[in-house]
Specification:
Structural class: alpha/beta
Strand order of the largest sheet: 1-7-8-10-11-13-12
Helix content: 10-25%
Largest sheet: 7 strands, mixed
CATH architecture of the largest domain: 4-Layer Sandwich
CATH topology of the largest domain: Purple Acid Phosphatase, chain A, domain 2
Shape: globular
Number of domains: 2
CATH superfamily of the largest domain: Metallo-dependent phosphatases
């Protein structure tokens, strides 16, 4: 009973630019650099020269001073997609109930490390690439209250907005932003909600103080898919990020003549960051989020690219793209040396893994830890409520399918009435993005369930024709909607055991699905005139992630919430299996319900 339950597989117009000249912020910090020696033992750093830089015209002398006195050096620290992981956690994303098993991250540890690093850098900025909301009970219970209190103690210089910041609407976000003591910026978010809009600036200019002519501007953007994957108000729109960056940079160049260096702080995803770099002409550095991408050297397991990733812009100049994985497991940094024309000529940086080792450099900040633990007292009852024990390899859409009223084979619902008119119950479908954590082996607590399904989604049932159901899965595997050509599908799918499909990932978009079977092994033929019932969640039903065109709420019945359905599922299994305490003891393995082929 010590394997891991991977619930990452569980069911599985626009307003004119408001750009009042910001108050300059001095970021000079003249301090010792002796910490570099210790830092070298913490991380493997990527370093090199760029855009014509070399040992002869850039870099440092033996005293640690820049060789070229006309150049300027600044360090950027960054996190993204923390998703309310205010305290340390297991690498799976679940709560750190037993630190001896290995825990990572948490803002007390981030604060400890950043407070050691920043004094060693003459000039530095600490930036947040968004998605602080949603993911643990720190958000589910307190919304933005606990998060804003903790963030204000980290020393952030700026933050951009992620899509999840809009999950509870514009007013909740506006209240959160009004409580922050540092600027929040996003050039492509435009809202008629006055309280929200007045707390968002399109950019921030940082003064280099005595280094006149070295001022730096941070331009920020948020994913334009927020409208379809979150819950912004009707009057809140999201401009194309690339267009917004270009427009804002042009504005800054006209109104801030001392700015020669531009950095983009984005929440659009790694691939879109690369595209932005390729389309830009003035951006030197892109600090991103949204895609939960790990960038590191090739010895780091799971790395999806180098840190930094270097991309050529439209002028052929090198642009640096960085991001810092997810949940605050890493604090990343990059040092850049700029020449007098604003080009990067030297770089050095790496992600720092924040594990709970005996290394004093990664100890937690005691004062902030105490505050985090005080907030955590509010959900102690959920921590103590044990629902079952598991040894799962894979539990997918079985939860949703098992609790669906139309599933006559389910032992949990007590329903023995077949769907009307020969309709076929096909199974359960869930978007992968709706699952925010895993549950480790051992006791399953209510806290873990709520952290895994934090959105409060409700179960619903939808009806699809044969052709529409086929096109749903074609859209998913093609990552592009068959129903609305040109519209991206923004998540993959998790399915119940009754659904099995095979696809060719190398096939042309719109023709990748090879086969699809549903309950009782029935093959779906898109040319037949059958009706299938799918159990899913309300977010998907109303068009979220683009799996299918939005259904009107009048077209489906809302059932129980997903977290409660999971609880009922566990209790049902416990009763069925006749365990002494009535708790669920789960052991389900991967069974090939999703398969790929190559041509």
């Amino acid at each position: 009973m010590k394997s891991t339950l991977l619930l990452s597989a569980v069911l599985s117009s626009a307003l004119a630019l408001v750009a009042a000249r910001p108050e300059p912020v001095h970021v000079d910090r003249l301090v010792s650099r002796s910490y570099y020696e210790e830092e070298a033992r913490l991380v493997r750093r990527g370093s090199g020269f760029a855009n014509g830089g070399s040992r002869g015209n850039s870099g440092k002398d033996r005293f640690g001073s820049l060789k070229n006195k006309k150049n300027f050096e600044i360090s950027f620290y960054h996190v993204n997609d923390v998703h309310a992981h205010l305290d340390e956690f297991r690498p799976s994303g679940s709560s750190c109930t037993d630190p001896s098993r290995g825990c990572v991250g948490g803002y007390p540890r981030i604060k400890s490390v950043i407070d050691q690093h920043r004094p060693t850098k003459k000039n530095s900025l600490f930036l947040n690439a968004g998605d602080e909301f949603q993911g643990t009970l720190f958000y589910s219970i307190y919304k933005g209250e606990a998060t804003s209190s903790i963030l204000n103690q980290l020393g952030f210089d700026a933050m951009t907005l992620g899509n999840h910041e809009f999950d509870d609407g514009d007013d909740t976000l506006a209240t959160f932003l009004s409580n922050l003591t540092f600027p929040v910026i996003s050039a492509n978010v435009h809202s008629t909600n006055r309280k929200l809009q007045r707390n968002i600036a399109p950019y921030k200019v940082f003064s280099a103080g005595k280094y006149r002519g070295f001022d730096l501007a941070i331009v920020a953007v948020t994913t334009e898919t927020t409208k379809s994957i979150s819950n912004p108000g009707e009057g809140t729109t999201f401009e194309d990020p690339v267009a917004a960056v270009k427009r804002t940079v042009a504005y800054i160049k006209r109104h801030h003549r001392n700015v020669k260096r531009f950095v983009a702080l984005t929440h659009i995803g790694y691939s879109q960051d690369i595209a932005l770099a390729q389309e830009s002409t003035d951006i030197s550095l892109i600090i991103g989020g949204h895609s939960h991408t790990l960038l590191a050297d090739n010895t780091t397991a799971g790395a999806q690219g180098p840190y930094p990733t270097i991309v050529k812009n439209k002028k052929g100049e090198e642009v640096f793209v960085v991001t810092s994985y997810r949940w605050g497991e890493y604090l990343s940094y990059i040092d850049l040396e700029f020449d007098s024309r604003g080009r990067v000529v030297r770089y050095e940086g790496a992600p720092i893994h924040l594990e709970n080792t005996n290394n004093a450099t990664k100890a937690e900040d005691a004062k902030l830890k105490a505050e985090v633990q005080n907030w955590a007292k509010g959900f102690e009852p959920f921590t103590k409520q044990v629902l079952g024990e598991c040894t799962l390899g894979d539990l997918t859409g079985d939860v949703i399918a098992g609790m669906s009223p139309s599933n006559t084979t389910s032992p949990f619902t007590g329903n023995t009435t077949a769907p009307a008119n020969g309709e076929i119950f096909a199974g359960g479908i869930m978007n992968a993005g709706g699952i925010r954590s895993a549950i480790d082996a051992g006791d399953i607590t209510m806290r873990q369930v709520l952290e895994t399904f934090p959105f409060g989604n409700a179960l619903v049932e939808l009806k699809f024709s044969s052709s529409d159901l086929w096109n749903v899965f074609e859209s998913i595997v093609s990552k592009s909607s068959v129903f609305n050509p040109g519209t991206a599908v923004t998540s993959f799918v998790q399915v119940s055991s009754s659904i099995r499909f095979t696809y060719d990932a190398s096939g042309p978009v719109g023709s990748r699905l090879v086969s699809l079977t549903v309950a009782n092994g029935e093959a779906v033929n898109k040319d037949e005139s059958k009706t299938y019932i799918i159990a899913t969640i309300d977010f998907l039903a109303t068009g979220g992630d683009g799996f299918w065109p939005a259904f009107s709420p009048s077209e489906f019945v809302t059932l129980d919430t997903l977290d409660q359905a999971f609880v009922n599922y566990l209790k049902g299994l416990g009763g069925l299996q006749g365990t002494a305490d009535g708790l669920a003891n789960l052991s389900i393995e991967l069974d090939g319900r999703i398969a790929t082929v190559t041509a």
